[in-house]
């Protein structure tokens, strides 16, 4: 977004009570009904400032693929755990174990398919 006063890029912050790194789309998707989201835009070149308040009037949800949602949540959790590991050796061992498990799963699946 560009500043309406001078055309320079503006920063966008979402609040209240949200980390500075929260995107507007993440804040909207995490909002509850009747929750207010504040959006602040600032131009650091000319000092232009704007704050807008958005209120979530209603939320309509559609059913999604429950398995896909659960899988995505598990992948996020695994990624968070891996990011917390500081030892390269542990990461290498974990990767080797995952690859071994995948090979075992593939071999089991291939054997099951051949038996049918």
CA-based gyration radius: 23 Å
The total of helices stands at 3
Written as H for each helix and E for each strand, in order along the chain, the element string is: EHEEHH
Can you give the helix content as a percent range? 40-55%
Rounded mean pLDDT score: 88
- What fraction of residues sit in β-strands? 15-25%
End-to-end C-alpha gap: 59 Å
As laid out across the biggest beta sheet, the strand order is 1-2-3
Protein topology:
Layout lengths: L10 E5 L8 H7 L5 E7 L6 E7 L10 H19 L3 H28 L1
Antiparallel strand pairs: 1-2, 2-3
Give descriptors for this structure.
about 120 residues; alpha+beta; three-stranded antiparallel beta sheet; 3 helices; about 45% helix; elongated
Characterization of the model:
- With 116 residues, this protein is α+β, with helices and mostly antiparallel strands.
- The protein folds into two domains: 11-55, no CATH class; 66-115.
- Helix content is 47%, strand content 16%.
- It has three helices and three strands.
- Strands 1-2-3 form a three-stranded antiparallel beta sheet, covered by helices on one side.
- β2 and β3 (49-55) form a beta hairpin.
- The longest helix is centred in the C-terminal third of the chain and has 28 residues, at 88-115.
- The chain is elongated.
- The model has no long low-confidence stretch (mean pLDDT 88).
């Amino acid at each position: 977004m560009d500043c309406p006063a001078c055309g320079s890029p503006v920063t966008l912050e979402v609040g209240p009570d949200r980390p500075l790194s929260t995107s507007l789309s993440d804040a909207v998707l995490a909002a509850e009904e009747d929750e207010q989201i504040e959006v602040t835009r600032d131009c650091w070149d000319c000092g232009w400032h704007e704050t807008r308040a958005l209120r979530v009037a209603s939320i309509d949800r559609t059913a999604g693929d429950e398995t896909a949602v659960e899988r995505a949540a598990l992948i996020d959790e695994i990624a968070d755990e891996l990011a917390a590991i500081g030892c390269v050796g542990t990461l290498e061992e974990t990767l080797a174990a995952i690859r071994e498990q995948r090979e075992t799963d593939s071999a089991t699946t291939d054997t099951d398919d051949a038996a049918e």
